[in-house]
Design a protein that fits this description.
about 350 residues; alpha+beta; Rossmann fold; OB fold (Dihydrolipoamide Acetyltransferase, E2P); 2 domains; six-stranded mixed beta sheet; 8 helices; about 20% helix; about 35% strand; elongated; binds adenosine-5'-triphosphate; cell membrane; nucleotide-binding; ATP hydrolysis activity
Length: about 350
């Protein structure tokens, strides 16, 4: 059974708590990405699962068995690190074959296994070469091949693509995803790159200060962020997060004072209790659209900066309260610096957070 479970996982270094009460379960064939800013505890969590770091409190189970006291080599896992250590004087084929030596296979069986994974990772042409004669992308694929060749129970990846250039990362993301989907193993990938997480993961665990802020499918964490931190972290360009005050609710619609603009939003019943209190309104940059005249769901400001992004343009609009609104427009929609824009909010893509930062639903 290829599963990974972490229960109340905690790690302290002296008086510092690097990981606090992490609960996470990874099912058979599932890929979970740990995503978060530098120092939030992603690698420490992965290292506890691997057995490279002791567990201060809590439990790690792999395949249903408690692993807390077992060394890494007894956990039946394979790890791929950012710094993949291929032996420089051994051919790529030899490097991939190495983990098979302990399994008592014949030379012929080993050769068959190497050929099998070389085909999966498109390394057939380079098996005779030394690591120094490979591109970074090929070396990365060789490291993955070496990890999967002995058919371990689970996979752990720590920033596997961070040494590759942008183009290689893009293609390796797809390749790793495809390889993993054919293997039906529980997999945890640590990354600080949200595109990597959004494309490779079945579920994403977003961490901050040693804790998981939200765990869910890429769609869930993007479209239903649990709190302001997740809302601001996921999505590019970043969600606009505006301070406001809920002044009234009438017929299920709330008037929210956003500085100079009053915007009327449909609100969930839970918002009734928040009348009079401060809120944060989250509006994605693609949920703002220029309209001819102001309305009860528009914000007004002046174009300050225009950044072409290929098919789209990122426009920074400064509103009357000196706030920077990020707006993404199709490239064909031309705007000029200094132009006044009325921006209608797509209310299906706006989020309301209470004064403690939690989403109001
Ligand atoms: P990054 O993305 O920068 O790799 P991370 O999210 O993987 O960060 P960790 O490496 O897990 O973060 O570190 C979490 C915190 O624990 C950091 O503040 C780090 O300095 C601290 N830490 C990690 N290892 C040790 C250690 N052996 N002793 C003391 N503190 C440590």
């Amino acid at each position: 059974m290829s599963t990974i479970e972490a229960t109340s996982l905690t790690k302290t270094f002296g008086s510092f708590t690097a990981v606090r009460d992490v609960d996470m379960s990874v099912g058979e064939g599932e890929v979970v990405c740990l995503l978060g800013p530098s120092g939030c505890g992603k690698t420490t969590t992965l290292r506890m699962i691997a057995g490279l770091e002791s567990v201060t409190e809590g439990e790690v189970k792999i395949g249903g068995r408690v692993m807390n006291r077992l060394p890494p080599e007894k956990r039946d896992i394979a790890m791929v690190f950012q710094f993949y250590a291929l032996y420089p004087s051994v051919s790529i084929g030899g490097n991939i074959e190495m983990p098979l030596y302990h399994l008592g296979l014949s030379a012929e069986e080993r050769g068959r296994e190497v050929a099998r994974v070389a085909e999966i990772l498109q390394l057939g042409e380079v098996l005779e070469r030394l690591p120094g004669q490979l591109s970074e992308g090929e070396k990365q694929r060789a490291a993955v091949a070496r990890a999967i060749v002995r058919d371990p129970n689970c996979f752990l990846f720590d920033e596997p693509l961070s040494r590759l250039d942008v183009e290689q990362r893009h293609s390796m993301r797809g390749q790793i995803k495809e390889v993993l989907s054919g293997l039906s193993k529980a997999t945890v990938i640590v990354t600080h790159d949200q595109m990597e997480a959004l494309t490779m993961a079945n579920r994403i665990a977003i961490m901050r200060d040693g804790m998981i802020e939200q765990i869910g499918t890429p769609h869930e964490v993007f479209s239903q962020p649990r709190n302001v931190f997740v809302a601001g972290f996921i999505g590019s360009p970043k969600m606009n997060l505006l301070d406001g005050r809920l002044s009234t609710i009438k017929d299920g619609k709330a008037t929210i004072e956003l500085g100079a603009d009053n915007v009327v939003f449909p609100v969930p019943a839970a918002a009734e209790a928040l009348v009079g209190s401060h809120l944060t309104i989250g509006i994605r940059p693609r949920a703002l659209e220029p309209v001819d005249s102001p309305s009860e769901r528009s914000l007004t400001g002046q174009v300050e900066l225009i950044e072409p992004m290929g098919a789209e343009t990122l426009v920074h609009v400064r509103d009357e309260d000196e706030r920077d609104l990020r707006v993404v427009l199709p490239r064909e929609r031309k705007v000029a610096p200094g132009e006044v824009l009325h921006l209608a909010c797509d209310l299906t893509q706006t989020h309301i957070f209470d004064d403690s930062g939690l989403a109001v639903r």
